[in-house]
Amino acid sequence: MNDVNIDILNTKKLYRELFNNILNSMPTLFEKLRPTCQSCEKINSCKINKTNPFQKFDENCKLKLWHKNIINALENDLSKDILYKLKEIEKDKELFICNRCTICCKFATSEFDYRTLKEKAQNGDKFAKQFTSIFQPYNDFSEAKKAYPDYVKMLEENLDDIDNVYFYYCKKLNENGLCSDYENRLQICRDFPNNPLVLLPKCCGYKEWKEKHHMEALLSHATIEIIDFYIKKLKN
Length: 236
Ligand code: SF4
Ligand code: SF4
Hints:
Elements: H1 4-10, H2 12-32, H3 65-93, H4 103-106, E1 108-110, H5 114-122, H6 126-134, E2 135-137, H7 141-147, H8 149-158, E3 166-170, H9 187-191, H10 207-235
Antiparallel strand pairs: 1-3, 2-3
Helix pairs in contact: 2-10, 3-10, 5-6, 7-8
């Protein structure tokens, strides 16, 4: 079980590249959405920078519609496309099955320590509530490393600060290393892996699904982050 922030950190360099490419393409989109200046009576004294949508326009200025056009394109076109893509990815997951190797039960990661997760659970965070009801932190890093050395090695190679990653195991695992309550497992267990960015062991039944959609998922997450940024900027 992982949270998406950790998964993105795993692919930090590639994610940054994709993020910058999308960010650099935004001015071209904004330019296409710019309303035409109507050369109103203020044309001779107009000081508006017609290449910058992020400014306050006069009430009667036609360029005032620019904000609305951008918000509309981000919220109604781009966001819907991404949502559609993510739903397709999720639907495709139904073609794959969990082979019950239990590695995700023996080894879960979070950017939060146990106390913070408990606090989040008490404050109503549904994921944290389910997670802390079954997962326990490993006593120390070396104990976690023994459970899944390949994953820890990969984190060590990719993360600037591995001290900010916390490792957990499920207390419902029995002495044979299997889930003792599989039929009644929680939604977070049923949903795993909940996105194709999750690092999966070679034996995982969803490995092929992950590889198939990894790039699309990274692109979608980067685009969502950029859309949120611009919508907040325009609405504030
Ligand atoms: S409850 Fe069962 S399926 Fe869920 S994480 Fe624990 S051992 Fe795995
Ligand atoms: S096959 Fe994948 S989802 Fe199923 S238990 Fe193993 S790691 Fe978890």
